[in-house]
Predict the structure of Aminomethyl-transferring glycine dehydrogenase subunit GcvPB.
Amino acid sequence: MTINQSGWRPESPAQGNDPADVPTYTGNKALMLEEPLLFEIGDIGRTGVDLGERPRGESRLGGLERNRSIGLPGLTEPEAVRHYTRLSRQNYAIDLGLFPLGSCTMKHNPRLNERIARLPGFADIHPLAPIDTVQGALALIHLVGEWLKTLTGMPGIAMSPKAGAHGELCGLLAIRAALEARGDARQVVLVPESAHGTNPATAAFCGYAVENIPATDEGRVDLAALQARLGTDVAAVMITNPNTCGLFERDMIAIAEAVHAAGAFLYCDGANFNAIVGRVRPGDLGVDAMHINLHKTFSTPHGGGGPGAGPVVFSEALAPYAPLPFVEKQGEHFVLVEEETAAEHHGGAFGRMVAFHGQMGMFTRAAAYMLSHGADGLRQVSGDAVLAANYILRSLDDVLVAPFGASGPCMHEALFSDEGLAGGLSTIDIAKGLIDEGFHPMTMYFPLVVHGAMLIEPTETESKGALDQFIGALRSVAERAKAGDASLKTAPVHAPRRRLDETAAARKPVLVWKEPVQSQAAAE
Ligand SMILES: *Cc1c(COP(=O)(O)O)cnc(C)c1O
């Protein structure tokens, strides 16, 4: 794309005789609108508002005031509004279509949740408001915590962590506090190959040495290898269950027994709780700590960096080390247990994860979701999610290779490899072909244990019609890839931008706008 003073110009000149190839003056294609940067639309010398002359007074900044232009472009209000609206239309969103991303649980967020989250009594309160004035909000945080404890069969909870990875950090800090309390300085955390990437990252961030445990040919943790490695230097084992191959770790109880016998703790990454909620209680499997992504299982929208919440549930052994603050019910009153009040009965708390109490908006959405589904409804969520994933797996395993297809039904996500694609074509070409079909691509090249992995999680909120349309689209692209259709190498062809150099974009991102050299002015 090039730009000159009169606006956008399409990237390539007309080819062939198809009128659709003739570039438009604006670069727009009907309702597909091009959008330059704010700096290119606006003008640093321009302002969108009329303000009177600033009254001259004595500066009280002691010479620290800004002495150069701030360099921000001025725009009219419609220009500013249109800019962001146009950009938002170029985004793929769960409200536009199915989001097949595996490992992310991109599911529809019922509008009821939004309505409840916007109630001013929840949305407009201040974290420092006197406790007596926010009893309803504390009651709601407490309620969500009780549901999570019941659903997981675990007695302790920390509501404050703000994401799954933050929950992992919270869990490992509690484990470290418990080990320190017994004077045990273990240094190693074991992480199986089928774990989510945040697990080893969290362990390393906490200062532990991370060691890998291999997966079996079935795509599950190799129990014998785990048992062989356990010892007095191992602080914890982090297991993702259901794992990132979309499989349930059937040996979980044996794993927990082995971990505990070695004096270590079992951390479970519960981001995939969507597949088992209402059916399996991780506490019954021997888990010591597990985070739950409210922004996955309990429907809060995420992606694009929106806020999340990663509450952590704890076993009896770890509950005393859970962080502050937390909500406690005393009679009919809700209190926040803080440093000043914790000493009496929660002296083991390892500290705090965040300044305040966590993400109120996520708690409200989760509460609305839980209460509107009820226990039986949540059980149906996991049943329908698993059914949808198996429908995708079995509808496509004749055209794509499912590496663990023989390991029995999958859980919430279907996994394929790039085996059998024609030479030169790979997973990325299928993903780009899906963009032309109007879908966000699936998760690619993850998990690492599968060559050219394609990981697809449909969730329970998609209808059979929506699943069939996605299956049809992926089937047609996969068939082209198997037949060696080289045009896939140039996909996407219908997107606003063609195939981008993603490596360069990641390694050499251009994050600063530089004013283009005005060639016309230079010539004059
Ligand atoms: C999403 C996810 C995480 C990380 O959660 P964030 O909220 O993105 O930090 C960890 N583990 C698994 C299995 C996940 O799917």
